[in-house]
Amino acid sequence: MGEIFCDLRTQRNFKLSDFTRVGLSKSTLSDFESGKSILRFDKLDAALELMHIEIAEFEYFVNGMHSDYFVEICDEIEVANYTQNVVKLKSINEEARQYDSEVGNRMIFLATQNLLYGLTEAQEREIIDLMFNIEIWSYFELSILSFVVEHLNTRLTLSLMEDFWKENLHYLKVRKYREKIIQIACRASVKYLREGQLEITKKLLRKVEKVLLSYKKDLFCHNMYRFTSGLLDYHLGNRRQGEQKMIASIRLFEDLNLPEMKAYYQKTFVEQTEK
Q1: Is 232 within 8 Å of 189 (Cβ atoms)?
Q2: For the chain, which terminal residue's Cβ has fewer other Cβ atoms within 10 angstroms, N or C?
């Protein structure tokens, strides 16, 4: 990764000293480029921004000019989950099971196993251990968490969410990471609401609302938040207001030409209100 960064830096005629303006000393950057150390995500993002390089573009270079395999699989799982394509989920699950001695494939297996059948207690402990041992979150790990967060032990997910929220908010600067983080928070909120944990949900959604004040043009994230806050209103007894928010959110997903999102949230709306 550092070597790729060095190639891009020299190609664009940036000196090591140029990056002091984003808080990176020459020695720190030199150590990163030579593979002696790694950079925090926010520092790497700031350095790339200085060179007018998107984080997704940099990942593309790092991955040898092709998309990361695990990220592509997670995108396929996401679509299959939204559209309830059980055949596709089973296919991915079986493929991952055959190679699950590798951590990435094991995580994919557990994620799809959860979406299809639910996890055993042992599998739930395993995925929680894997999540708590992550030091540097990539889009892949965030995706895995988004697939399992609704079905894990409440106490453990609260601890995991608290740790993540305290240490990793710098990821929010990058849109695709922000979308995934807000999605995780909203899915966790739906879980807590199902369990009647209203105060926990209010606390989590206040954090989401505060974060989104800095990203007012991000319709996708705001719309996920609006639906979930509407669901909270509904559970608090403000049923009419809650339904209006959720219906407006579903309509906006349709206007944004996201039929799979519309279908997913429509399903959630029906499940949560027809009781």
Answers
A1: yes
A2: C
DSSP-derived secondary structure letter, 14: -
Task: Give the amino acid at 47.
Answer: A
55-62 vs 2-11: helix axis angle to the nearest 10? 120
pTM as predicted: 0.78
Residues 9-22 have pLDDT tens digits of: 998 889 999 999 99
Is-contact 115 108, C-beta < 8 A? no
* Residues in Cβ contact with 151 at an 8 Å cutoff, skipping those fewer than 6 apart: 114, 118, 119, 124, 191
Count Cβ atoms within 10 A of the Cβ of residue 74 and give its class: 0-12 exposed, 13-18 middle, 19 or more buried.
Answer: buried
In words, the CATH class of domain 2-62 is: mainly alpha
Tokens (6 digits) for 193: 């609401």
Most distant CA pair in the chain, distance: 63
Domains of the chain, residue spans: 2-62, 67-147, 153-275
